[in-house]
Amino acid sequence: MNDISQDAEPPSLPELLASSSTHTLSSSSLTSPDASSYISRLTALSLQELEAEPTELASSSAQLTNALTTLCYTSYPTFLSLHATTSTLSSSLDALSISLSSLLSALPTLESGARTFAQDSRVLLASRRKAALVLEHHDKLHDVLSLPLLLETSVRNHNYADALLLAQHASTLALRFPSNPLVQSVKADCDARVHSMLAQLLRILHEQAKLPALFRAVGFLRQMDVLTEQELALAFLAGRSAYLDGTLRAVEVEKKGLDSEGSVERERDIHARYLKRYVDAWREGVHDVVMQYTTIFLDRPHSSEPAPPELHVLLTTFTTVRVGELLDLLRETLPLVADPSLLSSLLTQLTYCATSFARVGMDFRAALGPLFVAAVRKGITREFEDAAEAWTKALESDDAPKGRAGRARRKPSQLFLSSSANSTPPVPTPAQLAALASSAPNVPPPILASYPPLGVYTNTLLSALNGLRLLAPASLLHDLLASLDIALARGASALMGYAGKTAEGRSNGTSSASSEETKREDEVVRAVGTVYTKVFVPFLRRALAEGVYGVKADAAEGDGEVAMDAELRRTLEGLDVWLEGAH
């Protein structure tokens, strides 16, 4: 037993203190750092100090107790406040814990609502951003949106330079922003205004305008670059042609009065006045177009390259068409004028016109000759026919039976002789006939004055020949002589018919005149026939050939350009046979 106890390890001081203490002490409380430090201090004390240690500890305990009591007495409000605060903090922490739990449970719903709100407000935010962007660029947008209005104002005020700049700016914006609908819409509106400006510029070409205005309009059309140079030249000629047509239509007021009944002379004057006004308007209008076209399209002072040949072809076509229209009008209207005096004035006017156009390569003088020749031929021929018709009607009206004209048939002496004439009708002697062949071709033989109807016939034909002297185409001599011969042959036939009816009435016993009176009336008829054959016909043929054209006329030769017409020759021969048989 002793050996076992000797081998056992002695207990430590903390263990001894724990086993000897009246209070239950745990070993862990004695092994703490503070306790270990205090126990180490005890082991280092002497016995005396160790014995005195309880007293010191009791004294220290009493002091501490007193200090603690004093502290509690003096600072109890602080301890109460600290206690209340601690209690409140504990309950607050509990409430905070509950609130945090509620918050944590509500956070998923809040997050879902926030996402929903963000999605719902995305469109509104985009609109607000757009609105803010629009507000930020308000001035620039206003400038862009004002382009159509500014362009329209410029076009309305004929300020085409600014209008083209605005249109060019709109095109530039459209190229920079091809996918922007606003810019494209502005571009479309500007294009509509540019189209109206194009129509306005083209309308200038159809209106009354001088060269500067036309040059300016064509210049702006070139800047618009919507027409090629050939198309622009064609549009120019079409516009000026339309204006010229309107001007020429306005000249038709000169033809007023043609629908109403009027004399032939009045109608001729109206047609002549109309042609004069038309030629003046045509000359001025076509000359202006040619000079304007040449200045705008053909003259290129700042370019070394000549104008394209197509431009020259267009001008040539225009002038050809216009000259053709003028010639067509002359071909249609000149025969209605027919008066050589009026035709001469028109020919002079047209010759000056053609001469002025010759400077620009439009000499149409060669085309005027055939037109005026045809008009003179028709007019003089018609006057010859009218004179023969008047002579024939004078003879035929006196041949009418009693009662048809309301009066008795006149005697030849009453019809052919004046009331102051001698009882014996004058007949030309061979000497007088020889003198007539060498007399002046424009002086009527005095013997014709003894027969008033024949004198009227002579004056009518001489009036036509006097007018012909003003405009006598050399190529018409043969034609006019043929027409004159036809008219004279008709007059001779009418005279033979009258003489035959007179003889027939006397043979039927319808005349109650005495033999002497009958003989006298026969002498009058023979005298008229003789004067018609020997004096009247040769004089008028000489008046035409020699008096107008200066060509010697010898009807007896039967050849040459002044040869007598075969029908007139046969008629005169028949009249001579009748005269010889009447003797």
Automatic annotation (TrEMBL):
It is a peripheral membrane protein. Keywords: Golgi apparatus, Membrane, Protein transport, Transport. It comes from the Eukaryota. InterPro entries: COG8, Cullin_repeat-like_dom_sf. Its main location: Golgi. Residues 1-34, 398-430, 501-520 are annotated as: Disordered. The keyword Aminoacyl-tRNA synthetase does not apply. Residues 8-34 have a biased composition (Low complexity). This is Conserved oligomeric Golgi complex subunit 8. It is found in: Golgi apparatus membrane. Residues 415-424, 505-515 have a biased composition (Polar residues). One of its GO terms (cellular component) is Golgi membrane. It holds the Pfam family Dor1. The lineage of its organism: Eukaryota, Fungi, Dikarya, Basidiomycota, Agaricomycotina. One of its GO terms (biological process) is protein transport.
